Amino acid sequence: MFTDMHNHFVYGVDDGCADHDAMLKLLFALEANRITRLVSTPHITPGLEPFPMEAYHRHFGEARELIRREGLHMEIYTGQEILYTDLTARYLREGQALTMAGSEYALIEFMPGENYARLCEAAQKVRNAGYYPVFAHIERYACLSDIHCVEELKQRYGVKMQVNCSLFVHKQGFFRKRWIRNVMKNGLIDFVSTDTHDMPGREPSMGQCYDILMKEYGEDTARALTGGNADILFR
Questions:
Q1: Percent of the chain with pLDDT over 70
Q2: Which element (helix H / strand E) includes 161?
């Protein structure tokens, strides 16, 4: 039913699941959240730390076998959450960083304190490399507290915007609630994802998030944000 295109279920490659058993527990939790398409997005930091690509593909294969053996109803796809550095565009061009499900869309994250000019630079360079940027968990970036900046990134560079389920599930303060209301009113969010890492602590909450979205914004919006909009990754 749902698509989760930002998570860290593959074990032993980043700060997500620590081992095989933790991965299995998280896959069961994702299944319980009615997630049927799952794009794995472990952290990669181009030029800063080496990424264990061989181990990633091996552990991803183990996850696929677990899903088959346990009879889970989901399809999984490779990808990465790519920290924007001066080498990110080069990594994408050379295939050293993975797009989501082998598509033209790349999940890009930033350090929380990055300024708006740096985000614009990232959008332009990723586009110049031949890919479409999806900015991860945009609620974390102070420079996007002004929704006009979010609008410009979408209109000028074609950036897709992803937020975490926790934005809707967890209690928020006055200013954050106002920001959520404004970005939702203006249709600036494209995807809602779990960004789940491990259990307990960062469990998936897609099912709960969907229920909230449906209540607050209607079924069409809830369906689009939790799966329908993600169809572009699988064409």
A1: 100
A2: strand 160-164
